[in-house]
Structure prediction request, 275 residues.
Amino acid sequence: MAGRTLVMGIVNVTPDSFSDGGRWLAPEAALAHAHRLAHDGADILDVGGESTRPGARRVDAATECDRVLGIIRELALEGHTVSVDTVNAVTAHAAVAAGAAIVNDVSGGLADPDMGRVIAETGVPYVVQHWRGTPETMAGLATYGDVVTEVIAELRQRLDELVAAGVGPEQVILDPGLGFAKDAAHNWRILAHLEAFEALGLRLLVGASRKRFLADVVPPEVSRSPGERDHATAAVTALLARRRIWGVRVHEARPSRDAIRVAEAWRAAEEVRRG
Ligand code: PMM
Prediction:
């Protein structure tokens, strides 16, 4: 059986991410933030230098590398497990050389035709997230007959192309990509059909943290800003941890780490009850 759900803590070294853009752009601020996430229970530190919020403009790989490589090197030297959140093969390659242990690609390889080769060569675990279009165009592409079957079919296609490029299926971690070319109803439908994603037999990562669909279920005065959605995020983590999903990607580590502890204690008590 799979182990407990892992916490991937978000370190956005960007001026424009939707919930924390600009807060950790200075390297010292990013490192301090990463250290706090680790202290709060993050198992993996996910360092990204390009915002993917809807409508975000692309940055070139050189700027992205400038933002993230020093931070990744430092965190890896300190012994942390680091992932790099990038859609660029050049950045992914440089990040792995700097010590990143995982590549997290919100485009699942669609944004850069070289990504499959880099993942095959480096052999690192690779998060294949579902998206359509680009952050600039994705809002207009959130049309599905059935979101679950279509997202799974598109992820399978990504997987086939990656395997053809030499990537081992065991390297792949799938992510349904909540909010990426998906509206709130699509996100909830995916969460209600996780067994269909689990049936693919690969590890699953889910990124619900602070996303807008969570604002719709809590009163408006609570959900004013993304930072006020951390309780709702932790509730999602608890439900995902109940399924022992491989990982959750979150802005605040402690609430999710506690939610996972609760799910594990509950499970242990159930096992005692079964005897
Ligand atoms: N969401 C964002 C960025 N990267 N990566 C994965 N694997 N899954 C996600 O859901 C995901 C991601 C957008 O959130 P952010 O701008 O706050 O980081």
